[in-house]
Amino acid sequence: MTTTSPLAARPGAVVAEGATAAAHQVAVHYGDPLREQRLLAEGAGLVDRSDRDVLTVPGADRLTWLHSLTSQHLERLADGSGTEALVLSPHGHVEHHLVLAELGGTTWADVEPGTGAELLTFLQRMVFMLRVEPALVTDTWALLALVGPRAPEVLAAAGLPAPDAPSAVVALPGGGFVRRVPALGDGAATAFDLLVPRAELAARADALTAAGAGVAGLDAYEALRVEARRPRHGVDTDHRTIPNELAWLSTAVHLEKGCYRGQETVARVHNLGRPPRRLVLLHLDGVSEDLPVPGTPVLAGTRDVGRVGTVVRHHEFGVVALALVKRSVAPDAALTVGGSRAALDPDDAAGDRDARDDTRAAARDRVRAVRSATIGR
């Protein structure tokens, strides 16, 4: 059974069509997706992310228990701090990506929409005799995001805390918290997550918009996330993805902690320095009105060299996508995705080699060619 967020009933709101795993549906935009992107990049925008699943883990053994089950060092996670963690398969493939907050004797985790029940089942199987009580609380707690250079002043105007330290978590009056998260877009879009009681979702949103935030749909958030090269599990990853292929190796994996499921693969690939694929930003020609869906192959000629994940229309770059491609893909490779011409972003062209000027220049030439094809048509 699915429900629609009260914020998706606001004027101009459009909810995504088609089947979705989320139990709570949110607005993808409010009538002007590109303007909403600029709001997040240049001002302060409130994004409804209440489709994400939320879990709690209270209990005296919670941190040592989660430490043993995930890729992150959590034994001494301080109260009022957050981090990321992964649950891996025995072969090191990513099964869940958790965004964590430790506050007041409870560890909170928010995960991809529709994945919370599966994660809870796994956690419950691993409880044994330990003092932990994992629970799925999506129906009672909801996530909002406040994004943009003006986000701190909006929080201040609303009488709410704006944590300064990276990943800091501060309790909200009446329950929930504000958590600082990595900036979106080019790094100028300061970002905060707000966990609030679901019954108060509309009232909390009203307070933030009264304090100066504009509403923006999930599409705007996704566009800046793609620009920042921050992957989503199950969208920008597949069943073969290992942490070494993504930035999660530095944000969600602790390379010096003890044993956890899948650690052998992570350590071996890290020591060899040769992950099979890498996450890159692709520029597409944007000729087709229909954007490629996640999982569409990336082709170099007739050779399959990867798969795209999130594909968006960006307010500055046009159509761009996150893609997992083979390490061997040349920086100036002529690529196609679903019939559209594509090119690696110059910042990703050098891969795990030095970003030499000639490598970046070749990639820039390819991106210009792709964009020129769009303008010419």
Describe the structure.
- It is a single chain.
- By secondary structure, this protein is of the alpha+beta class.
- It is 25% helix and 31% strand.
- It has helices at residues 33-42, 62-69, 116-125, 151-157, 201-210, 218-227, 248-251, 263-272, 346-349, 357-376; strands spanning 3-4, 14-15, 24-25, 27-29, 45-48, 53-58, 81-88, 94-103, 106-111, 135-136, 141-147, 169-171, 177-184, 189-197, 214-216, 277-284, 297-300, 303-314, 318-326, 335-337, 340-344.
- Helix 1 (33-42) crosses helix 6.
- The termini are far apart.
- Mean pLDDT is 93; it is low at 352-356.
How is the secondary structure organized here?
Layout (H helix, E strand, L loop, with lengths): L2 E2 L9 E2 L8 E2 L1 E3 L3 H10 L2 E4 L4 E6 L3 H8 L11 E8 L5 E10 L2 E6 L4 H10 L9 E2 L4 E7 L3 H7 L11 E3 L5 E8 L4 E9 L3 H10 L3 E3 L1 H10 L20 H4 L11 H10 L4 E8 L12 E4 L2 E12 L3 E9 L8 E3 L2 E5 L1 H4 L7 H20 L1
Parallel strand pairs: 1-3, 5-15
Antiparallel strand pairs: 2-4, 5-11, 6-9, 6-10, 7-8, 8-9, 11-14, 12-13, 13-14, 16-19, 16-21, 17-18, 17-20, 18-19, 20-21
